[in-house]
């Protein structure tokens, strides 16, 4: 965008950032803002905390933390529960996060696909991506049924105990798998797969059949079926799934649901200009 300068010397191209953009030294940071963001991020990871607890765990004085919280509260980013004397993330934080999601074409293009998937299966449809070794849920279309799964946008889940997580892990080579899975696998339920060899076998089966299956591995009473979504380079960048209670996702129903899930993944892959590559061996 061009603009006219005050002296009438013609037009100059507007700058989106200063010339010293790459300089991240202390002189180019705002310490008070940096401290405020530390408090904000800390609270977002530990919803519902007293001022004294935040202060103690962060190693900052109560007065400093209180000033930060009040400032953030005035912007709607945090809120205070006077009854319980606890601080929580505020509604404006969600609004800002939602604006990020709206600029992501993957989420925009996934919505009609997910809605169609929910209508076809009668179960909740989910969209997730990998984020620092975890599954980050970006979007969800809930079923109309009374009992349903619920993964609000922003939820993080362990990859080895998630349908979407295993759909993405199944597309990774051995080196990348080792980095993502780390030194140990956490057990969330008695059905969680925590043996590395058993998980690799499960992932090989996932690649062969084209979809992953979470059988109460994260939450007892819930199952999930997922398939990967590929980008223009044929890399798995997301997963789409349906999830619901074991009372509905049983036996032949699982095989029946796998087909619309895989079709939804193919449809979304095409919608973002992606390409499905031959399965990895």
From TrEMBL:
Pfam families: HTH_IclR, IclR_C. Keywords: DNA-binding, Transcription, Transcription regulation. Residues 92-274 form the IclR-ED domain. GO terms for molecular function: DNA binding; DNA-binding transcription factor activity. InterPro entries: GAF-like_dom_sf, HTH_MetabolicPath_Reg, TransRegBhcR, Tscrpt_reg_IclR_C, Tscrpt_reg_IclR_N, WH-like_DNA-bd_sf, WH_DNA-bd_sf. Residues 30-91 form the HTH iclR-type domain. The keyword Transcription regulation applies. One of its GO terms (biological process) is negative regulation of DNA-templated transcription. This is Acetate operon repressor. The lineage of its organism: Bacteria, Pseudomonadati, Pseudomonadota, Alphaproteobacteria, Rhodobacterales.
């Amino acid at each position: 965008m061009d603009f006219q300068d005050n002296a009438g010397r013609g037009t100059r191209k507007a700058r989106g950032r200063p010339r010293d953009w790459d300089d991240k030294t202390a002189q180019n940071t705002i310490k008070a803002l940096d401290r405020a963001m530390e408090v904000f991020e800390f609270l977002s990871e530990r919803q519902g905390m007293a001022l004294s607890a935040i202060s103690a765990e962060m190693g900052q004085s109560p007065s400093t933390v209180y000033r930060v919280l009040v400032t953030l509260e005035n912007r709607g980013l945090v809120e205070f529960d006077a009854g319980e004397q606890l601080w929580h993330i505020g509604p404006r934080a969600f609004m800002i996060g939602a604006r990020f999601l709206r600029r992501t074409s993957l989420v925009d293009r996934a919505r009609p696909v997910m809605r169609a998937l929910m209508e076809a299966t009668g179960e909740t449809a989910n969209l997730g991506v990998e984020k620092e070794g975890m599954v980050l849920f970006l979007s969800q279309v809930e079923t109309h049924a009374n009992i349903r799964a619920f993964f609000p946008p922003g939820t993080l889940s362990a990859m080895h105990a998630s349908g979407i997580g295993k759909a993405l892990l199944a597309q990774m080579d051995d080196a990348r798998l080792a980095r993502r899975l780390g030194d140990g696998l956490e057990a969330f339920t008695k059905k969680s797969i925590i043996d590395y060899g058993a998980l690799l076998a499960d992932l090989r089966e996932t690649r062969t059949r084209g979809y992953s299956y979470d059988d109460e591995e994260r939450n007892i009473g819930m199952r999930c079926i997922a398939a990967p979504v590929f980008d223009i380079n044929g890399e798995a960048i997301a997963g789409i799934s349906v999830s619901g209670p074991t009372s509905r996702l049983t036996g032949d129903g699982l095989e029946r649901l796998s087909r619309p899930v895989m079709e939804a993944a193919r449809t979304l892959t095409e919608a973002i200009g992606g390409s499905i590559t031959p399965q990895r061996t």
